[in-house]
Structures are given as structure tokens and as C-alpha cells.
Amino acid sequence: MNDKKTNFLLRIWFYLTIMILFLMYKQLETIRWVFRDSDNYKLTNAQIVSSDLAFHGTWWGWQINIQYEYQVGERTLQSNKTRGFTSKEEAENYSQKYPDGKKISIYYRVSQPYISIFEPESIGVSDLYLLGFSIFASFVLLFSALKVNAKQVKPQTKF
Q: How many CB atoms neighbour CB 102 within 10 A?
């Protein structure tokens, strides 16, 4: 019985860890911005090239993908921001804020100008809380599985 419970907890821990790594990858620039080097970014002007709304049938079903263009020196660079919403109405309201051709401000990393952050003021603190909670939950699951497994292994006594 404990063996099944240990395997179940370890399987959940594995999938949760994969989810955490995916979240960290998707939020890499956010994490860098918040925790490490926001001073290494410069403010510049950009222009919205396109703003596409689509339903993906996933966790954040409605997604908006905003493409924007900006210049650093003589180079014209293009980047994007994808944001998910649970309702079409929320996504449409957000989309209307950024019509094609609108001028916006973005931050780009000085050492790697092709890396930019759009709307740093809306950086998902809730996403960071979710990430922190997920990491905590992952450790709780791992230690629970190890504890269940430790109870299972009993020392052999010889008479």
C-alpha cells in the first residue's frame, strides 16, 4: 500500500516539477526583471505591428499575441507579448488597448537588445506567487513521498 502511495506522490511531484520548469521558462524575463537586473534595461519607444486574439482551448483559453517593433541605434527589432485570459470579454478589452499602429513604451536589455519587456508594471506578481507556491508544494510532495518510503523500510534485527 505504501509503495503505491510513494509512487503516486513521486509521480505528482514529477509533473509538478515539469510545470514549474515550464512556468519559469515562460516567465524568465519577468523573473530576471523582478529579481536581478532591471537596471540593465533601457526605455525606448515602440509601435504595435499586430494584435491577434485567438482561442486555444487551454488553461488560459483566450490568448492575445501583440507584436511590436522598436529601434535600438540603427537596428529595427521585433518582439511580442502573449497574454492569456479566461474570458473572451477580458481578452477583447485588453486587445482594444493596443490597436495596430499604437505607440507604446518598452524596455530592452542593453547587452541583448533583442530581449524586451512590454508593460513591466503589469509583470505578473500573481504568476510569481503561483511559481513560489508551486515550488513549495513540490517540496512538500517530495518530502511526503520520502517520508512514506522511509516508514516502509524497517531495519532488520537478528537474534
A: 13
